[in-house]
Amino acid sequence: MDQQFGEQIGNNLEVYMDYLFIKSVEEDHMLRDTVDTFQQLWKIIMKLNLRKCSFRMEEGKFLWVIVIKDGFKANPEKVQAISLIPPPISLKEVQKLKARLVAINRGRDVAQNPNDTEESIWCFLCEAQLYGAAEARKQFLEVGGDPRPVMRQAYNMFKDGGDPEKLVDAFSKGRESEYFYASLYAGLYYESQNEADKAKVHIVASCNSPYGQRSDDYMASLAKVHCMCRNWEL
Q1: Does residue 82 share a domain with residue 196?
Q2: In terms of C-beta density within 10 A (0-12 exposed, 13-18 middle, 19 or more buried), how is residue 167 classed?
Q3: Residue 38 lies in a domain
Q4: Residue 62: predicted pLDDT
Q5: In this structure, are 119 and 162 located in the same domain?
Q6: Short-list 96, 97, 158, CA closest to 129
Q7: Of 200, 193, 189, 196, nearest in space to 228 by CA
Q8: Element of type H or E holding 14
Q9: Residues 50 and 98 in one domain
Q10: What is the pLDDT of residues 183-215, one digit of tens each?
Q11: For the chain, what is the domain count?
Q12: Which of 116, 133, 150 is nearest to 195 (CA)?
């Protein structure tokens, strides 16, 4: 879908899986934007389910939010779901609550930035805690191409399954930032598979890497906090 509608996505169209959302800034542009989309649908021989189509809407649901003419607003159904969740009383329950919040909000950042690889990965990590890695992978958020080679490979590893050791090896002699990110996401991948010992090796390595020690990148701080929460010595 990203390839077929690449010129429109981010301009007058948003795409997620098999959802199409035609957006127009001006009412006068609505017909033109709709024609552009249908011409492309005709070109790639794609049919729509008319029962699921809606037109001339000023407000409507898209993914897990309500889209209005001024942007997004919360879906009342999702807000009610949050209010019914019992208050967490342990660290594990806090982590589960965070996973639920991410699941409710999943797709919103990606809708604004279709190439947000890290949003997709972190959504998977949270949902893996809640549902398990296999189930989380079934609803993996697909995004466009990240300009960073290390993040493209990390994304493919989380999306399709892969070998974290190969990710680290591929960038072990690259830029310091690439080795840091490869080690961090290798460790996080292992953690999603409940392999804590291997996760520890790589996440600690990311913290102790030159980039992890010197950079003011917030992800370097995140890696250190991750280790602190698990009592891993650096």
Answers
A1: yes
A2: buried
A3: yes
A4: 65
A5: yes
A6: 96
A7: 200
A8: strand 13-16
A9: no
A10: 999 999 999 999 999 999 999 999 999 999 988
A11: 2
A12: 133
For 109, residues 6+ apart whose C-beta sits below 8 A from its C-beta are: 116, 119
Distance CA 68, CA 11 (A): 16
Q: Are residues 51 and 162 in the same domain?
A: no
Compute the average pLDDT of residues 78-106: 66
Q: Which domain holds residue 22?
A: 13-57
Q: pLDDT: is 57 or 16 the higher one?
A: 57
pTM exceeds cut of 0.90: no
Residue keyed to tokens 């906090």: 225
Measured CA to CA, the distance from residue 175 to residue 189 in angstroms comes to 21
Cα–Cα nearest to 181, from 30, 137, 158: 158
SS3 183: helix
Distance of CA 149 to the CA centre of its chain: 17
Q: pLDDT tens digit string along 33-62? A: 889 888 888 888 888 877 778 777 777 776
Question: Looking at the structure, do residues 50 and 156 belong to the same domain, yes or no?
Answer: no
In a shared domain, residues 84 and 36? no
Check whether residue 103 and residue 184 sit in a common domain: yes
Amino acid 150: pLDDT: 94
Residue 175 lies in a domain: yes
